[in-house]
Amino acid sequence: MKRTGGSHLSRRRVARVVENLKPSGIRKFFDLVIGREDVISLGVGEPDFAVPWRIREEMIYSLEKGYTSYTSNHGLPELREAIAEYYKRFGLDTNPEQVIVTAGVSEAIDLALRTVVEPGDGVLIPEPCYVSYKPLSILCGAEVVTIPTNPDFKLNYDRIRQYVNEKSKVLIVNYPANPTGVSYSKKELEEIADAVLEFDLLVISDEIYAEFTYKGRHMSIASLNGMEDRVVVLNGFSKAFAMTGLRIGYAIAPADVLLGMLKIHQYCMLCAPITGQIGALEALKCLDEVERIKAEYMRRRNYVVKKLREVFDVNMPDGAFYVFPDISSTGMSSEEFAEKLLIEKGVAVVPGNAFGECGEGYIRAAYAVKFERLKEAVERIIDFAKEHGKS
Ligand code: PLP
Predict the structure, then answer these.
(1) Which of 26, 178, 212, 244, when mutated, tests ligand 1's pocket best, judged by the most ligand atoms within 8 Å of its CB?
(2) Residues 282/85, Cβ–Cβ less than 8 Å
(3) How far is the CA of 152 from the centre of ligand 1 (A)?
(4) Mean pLDDT of 23-48
């Protein structure tokens, strides 16, 4: 049969909504440094620790035994049970039926948004924020309203009240936060919860850095009075257990939302990878390892903040492994600063505007590199600042 009509699709190939998405500003810088040995990268949020040995051993053993099948769509029952038990640590009393295991928190964010957002619904996103919230909301047809939070980078009642409108349905919170390291006290969370109740919102709470909370213990917003039926908690194993490539995250959600998320998950993912799930189950028995890693991050945080304050204004991060210094006094834009720093000093950081417009004037530096390398990178940043007029 002769085919007619030419080799190209005559209609638009890539959907408009996808074509209009901006590529991630983090990846751009990541790609620039691939293969450059001379560069110290404080760019991506990738832990520099190997997965604790006990976890690796458990995964290797499972492969030797031939455990390479699908699991239940929900995730391994033992893992869901262990996650429900683990979350008591953050004040939340939940049960395995409310847990779904996903391919990283990334998938969980997507599932949560796709489950609750209808075209035209409002999603409130405090900025600066993790790069996927806005694009994934837009893909659901959401009307995104960003809440600028500089200079303290904290969400609070007044800021929510100022930006909420009649379409607002979902509020995304993330703490300890990427890129700012901000976290909240119980009182501050209660203030946010008051706004959630008053404006009848549903919260998607990304708590992926919960283990790296430097003062006290992380508290889930879902554990506050009145919040149990309004919060989808997201967390995972990428950061706390350095398991980024194993792709295990999870959500703890009210029954109706969980069911919706499960439906999408079973069609688009089927299940999270079994090897990672087995590793995750072992990980929850290794919390002492996390304490050790946290102590090292805290040492690095203290060092980086103290040194960078010689040249920049820097908020003390409460958690995660990022600092977010204000570089506006150099007169350079965030992108200009990051590009020149890379070219002149071989240090990669991410321009603050990759996390939203109000991140302009800042850079994000991840202290997830070995202490000696970190010291070298910080010294190069300070030299760079001084050469560009800072004293
Ligand atoms: N949420 C936040 C705030 C992050 O910083 C990241 C990764 O950097 C993710 C989610 C994605 O995590 P995962 O590797 O579990 O998909």
Answers:
(1) 178
(2) no
(3) 22
(4) 79
